[in-house]
Amino acid sequence: MQPSKVVSQEEWIAARRALLEKEKVHMRAGDALAAERRALPWVKVDKAYVFDTESGPKSLAELFDGASQLIVHHLMYAPDWSAACPGCTFQAEHIDGPAPHLEQHDVRVIAVSSAPLEKLLAYRARMGWRFAWVSPRGGDFNRDFKVTFTADEVAKGRIDYNFGTIETDPRYVERELPGVSVFYKEEAGEVFHTYSTYARGLDALLGANHYLDIAPEGRNNGAYPNWPRRRDEYDLAAAPAHG
Asked: How far apart are CA 133 and CA 117, in angstroms?
């Protein structure tokens, strides 16, 4: 890390005020973007998805568990992996903390992964998480929401990820990829898909990254190889790419 220029308190306040004006512009632009996000049209979900849960098979509508809004974390955990990928594990670390507060806003947050339920629950216990984690039991859910791809698609080196904006980037040509999808359930029980985000769109939900953004070094990932890791692997020399 290269140290910044050292100045007087008065000079620092002047520089900070100048940056604050830019931060305010950025924040207001973010508010406007959030309003546009909420104004997106919806798509009715007509397909009958079924998920394996701790309390037995459930439909997508039943996953709301009394809420009207459902946020689904698509976590990368293929059926033959022994663990979820480290990056998605990092993503999952940001679910339990906000969850009780989101419930007071009529929002439920869960995770869906391709691996069988018993693997998901064992890994959840290993990580000490509490959120509901369900499996689509080999159905079309992950395919339809563009986070699971076939071996043929991967072999061809071309997939449809992030609404077709990422097709051949080798970082994203994988069988499983991360994302978040959002749904709304009306009183009559009809479910609508309202939003999805992928790739760097997920960064807005990763609070640890934003803590780093206000620290002197910033994210500086080059100085911290194999970061992030699973929380119980930081003392190891290296962490596997995934299961």
From this structure: 8
- Calculate the alpha carbon distances from 9 to 4, 13, 64, 126 in Å: 14, 6, 52, 48
142-162 per-residue burial string, b: 16 or more CB within 10 A, e: under 16: beebbbbbeeeeeeeeebebb
Residues 242, 229 contacting (CB under 8 angstroms): no
Tens of pLDDT along 170-210?
A: 999 999 999 999 999 999 999 999 999 999 999 999 999 99
Integer Cα distance of 54 and 71 in angstroms: 18
Q: What does the alpha-carbon distance between residue 174 and residue 153 come to, in Å, rounded to a whole number? A: 9
Q: Express the helix, strand and coil content of the chain in percent, nearest 5 each.
A: 35, 20, 45
Task: Tell me if residue 101 falls in helix, strand or coil.
Answer: helix
What 170-173 contacts at long range (C-beta under 8 Å, 24+ apart), as own/partner pairs, is 172/199
The one-letter amino acid code at 213 reads D
Q: For the whole model, what pTM was predicted?
A: 0.93
Place domain 43-205 in its CATH homologous superfamily: Glutaredoxin (3.40.30.10)
The distance from CA 106 to its chain's CA centroid, rounded to whole angstroms, is 19
